[in-house]
Fold this protein.
Amino acid sequence: MRRVPLWLTFVFLYVPIVVVVVMSFNAGDSPFNWSGFSLKWYGELAADEQIRTGLGNTLIVAAGSTALSTVLGTLLAVGLARHTRSKLLDAIATLPVILPDIVLAIGLLAFYALVQLTLGLYSVLLAHAVFGTAAVAAVVRTRLATTDPSLEEASRDLGANGFTTFWRITLPSLAPGVVAGALLAFTLSIDEFVIAFFTAGPQSPTLPIVIYSMVRFGVTPEINALATVLLAVTFTAILAVQRLTRLAGTR
Amino acid sequence: MRRLGERFTLLGPGLAYLTALMVVPLVLVLSYSIFQRGRFGGLVHEPTGENFARLFDPLYLDVLVTSVKLAGVTTVLALLLGYPTAYAITKLPPKWKTVALIALVLPFWTNFLIRTYAWIVLLSPAGLVNDALTGWGLIDEPLQLLYRRPAIVAGLLYAYLPLMVLPLCAALERMDDELLEAAANLGARPARAFLSVTLPLSLPAVITGCVFVFVPSIGNFVVPELLGGGQTAMVGNLVRDQFLKARDWPFGATLALAVVAMLVVLLMLQAWSARRLQGGRDA
């Protein structure tokens, strides 16, 4: 009896996903009525120019913002954990996580207007690095909490300077956390819609923006096929992160 | 001196970045709200309270109230379904607990638009829900499920339910079983022990979960548009329209600040409840 709500929750969470995936193999034109198995919508998907452009843009944005976030977030995490007790700095580093995305989106739009940056892919990349940095910093800090600061102190006592200590001691012990944080930032960026919607130039839509206009235009099994591919990619990525985080926790 | 340089190298870049691309933009939103829109969409730098007064224009007030209602109903439903789910998860054997937690977050990491799209497929007149209802002979004609308010609530609940369950799992997991045993030894029935021990102790997590569900729900403009069919606008839709269509940035910024104000109130409530619990423990 106690597990009824549990099953209810999982049925609620997974039925829509299963329906979308099953209907992606539909031979007919409708995502509602089953009329035989076919892979034709995957063919349509692969040939769709708009989606390919969107996917390319998304990967550029995700790769660029992840690289930026990983560097900034890792340094920030070490700095916050080892060099300050300021609540204000803590708050700034966690704010992107709780701030409603639409508020950050309009703020960035206003900021880009102020500094007269033409909206394009760069504007999305820079915007995504904001929550990316916060995400990496959060993950790396949980890893830092389990590492032993006395190793760093020993390194200093033996005469290593700050840079050597960071490079040879701190960073290697943080590596699993840094990788997990980077994967998190990458996944967040790939999925992000609202901020991209406000800050992307009209010539550079990311994949979620393409999906948005497709869904608004009407439903076709091609969207189901795209959904299935994306599901497969994110499920794999998340399971990989899970493994890494577990490794990070046990080692 | 060396420590100072190190601190600067570590903290400097990240904080400078977040200041430039988050703090400054937020200050801009704040300052926009006290300015007026120029005749051609520009900005008139004369302070005014007009934007805030417009929030109480029945037209906009209605949208704000509707948004609070829809996000509120979503939050309550998430709590009613999420609390017993979290409770059941923490009682699972360790191995299944991990599986359940991963299964809980997996859908959350799939593209938000795709998850919303799934509900169009489910709720449309030819969709699975109507098929099932007619198939079982419960209804003769397909129901209009899509483009109604319950569809918006379903979409929001689907999107944010895991955000309710996760903090509750964490809190219930930490809970000291000895307290429940003590309650039982003192003669409390399980229901009574739940109401006077488990529930109060998990209250901060309940509030955290509610904040996590309510805040993204109320700022959402995709679900109301795709599942509400544009008939029920929420405050997120208004903000989007003010920025991208009407070009009235000052009013759009003011609407966004109304959302932030709700967030701040909820966070204060959360901090208060956590502090109260802490105080109770110390006493």
